[in-house]
Amino acid sequence: MSFFTSLSGLKAAQTSLSVISNNIANTSSTGFKKSRAIFGDLFASAPTQSTKMIAGQGVRLNGITQQFTQGTLESTDKTLDMAIAGDGFFMVRGQPPRQDTSFTRNGAFAVNVDREVVDTLGNIAQLLPVDANGAVTSTNLADAFDFVLPDTDPGDATAILSNINVNNEGTVTATFSNGNQIALGAMAMASFTAIEGLRPIGDAHWQSTGDSGPPVINQAANGPLGSIRSGALEGANVDITEELVSLISAQRNFQANAQAIETANNMTQTIVNLQV
Question: In this protein, which residues make up the domain named Flagellar basal-body/hook protein C-terminal (predicted)?
C-alpha cells in the first residue's frame, strides 16, 4: 500500500513541476496569468472502523487554478497597445464564420488589411455604442460591434484619419485632417462573478463557462473593470524568484517520494527473501 501512496505523491510532484515550469516559461508572455496546483489528501475507512488505526492513502489533484492578480504595466507608446489596471477583460470576437466571443488581458492590438483592430489571434476588438459626448448608450452584449478604423471623416470625404486616442474610460476618439473629432465607441469590457471558472484557450484569452457565469459588459472605470492605459501592455504576473523556490520544493518532494518507493521496494524484497 505504501508503494501506491508514494506513487500518488510522485504524480502530484510531477504535476507541480509542470505547472511551475509553465509559469516560468511564460514570464515574458503579455497578459499571462500564473497557475497553482491544489492538492488534497486521500483517506478511506469503513463506518465501523476506528480512523486512529488507518493511514492515509496518498494525495490527489483537486484542480489547477489560475491566479488573476495584476501584472506589471509596461509602457510601449503605441496607442493601440492597451493595458487594464483592474480586474476587467477586453471583449473580442473571432472572424467569420464562427465569430466566437472570447475575453483577453492581452491588449496588443493592431490594424489588419481591412482596417479592423485585431488582437494577436486575429480576433476583432469590440466597441460599445456611445453618444456624441462619448457616453455609452448600451451595455448589451448584442449591441457590441467590431472596432474598425474609418478611412475618412463621415461628414467630409476629403478629410482622412490622422489620429486615434483612447482615454482611461476606453472611449475611442478619431481625429481627422480637417480637425474634426468623432467618438467611435468605447472598448467593450467584461467582468465575471467567478473569475476562476473561466476556460483558458491560450495567449491570455479565456471563454466564459457555466462555472464563471455570464459576462457583465460595461465600459472601463465602472465597478471592478478598472481603467485602460493606452500605450502600455500588462506583463505576466509571475514572480520568478517565487517560482524558483517552488521549483526546488517540488523537486525535493519528488525525490522524497521516489526514496519512499525505493524503501518500500527494499522492505518487500527483504520479506520475500525471508519467506524463501
Answer: 229-274
Q: 264: domain range?
A: 2-69+238-275
Q: Are residues 161 and 59 in the same domain?
A: no
Domain match, 41 and 106 both: no
Query: How remote is the C-alpha of 253 from its chain's centroid?
Result: 28
pTM given for the model:
0.85
Q: Are 152 and 160 in contact (CB under 8 A)?
A: yes
The total of structural domains in the chain comes to 2
User: 168 and 206: one domain?
Assistant: yes
Q: For 161-217, how does the pLDDT look when each residue is reduced to its tens digit (9 = 90+)?
A: 999 999 999 999 999 999 999 999 999 999 999 999 999 998 999 999 999 999 999
